[in-house]
Amino acid sequence: MKAIYYAFVGMRPRQWTKNLVVFAGLVFSQSIANPQLLLKSVEAFVVFCALSGVIYLINDIADIEKDRIHETKRHRPLPSGRLGIRQAIVVSITLLLLSLVVAWRVGANFFIVSVVFFALNFLYSLVLKRVVLLDVVSISLSFIIRAIAGVAALQEVEADIELSPWLLICTLFLSLFLAFCKRRHELANIEDPSLHREALAEYSPMLIDQLVGISAAGAILSYSIYTIWPDTVDKFGTTDLVYTIPLVLIGVMRYLYLVYSKDKGASPSEMLLSERFILITVFLWILLVVAIFYVF
Hints:
By secondary structure, the protein is mainly alpha-helical. The chain has 15 helices and no strands. Helix 7 (108-126) packs antiparallel against helix 8 (134-155) and helix 11 (205-228) runs antiparallel to helix 13.
């Protein structure tokens, strides 16, 4: 039982909030009230949480020696020795196979997207995370794949459901923003960054700051364009989404404040769950979007 528990901890369930992106298609297709589509989205979410957990275990196996000398990562189940490598491999293979079986039951297209997601992240764990810029770009692509997967699951029921390209672009920039903020925190707080991540040795504070600014501006601008894009207005029959822009702007500015003034940003998922201001901002954004789509 202890091995199962530590395997679960090693799968980093707190990081699974990233997979909430798969619900984007459900929300923006105005299908929350459809039980069949809601079930498909929940199934997609569960599959991606399982696949993410497998990737985290693989990543910890690959980095076990480096993690053992890291200030915080050495406490994870694998580096600390509470979970054996053989046990982690058995859990990973079993969970991967179960995830792919469920993914196939959701639909063929969803299954393909799920396999691409796993392949990209597997490649990231072994190679891409060591290559400057590609380490962050591959993380962003993972978020885009999540959004595509959410729509692919819904299309198994209703083939005409689509996800706006502008939302995909916004997802790209927002994930880049969060990833570069994390790299900035690592660069500023780790004595020898190259021992933690090989790619960090190729970054400089000036480069990171420029990339953070570019990605933050891109996220806000792309979302703003999406709210007033003719296809968006035609689809939803309203321009009221424009009123959600201030919440997005405030959320990004608050995150920048925490990164630059409070030296935070090591874990976007932890920030979302623990930072009250950002949590309230996200909740208000969701509430306003739902109200615009389903009430007004």
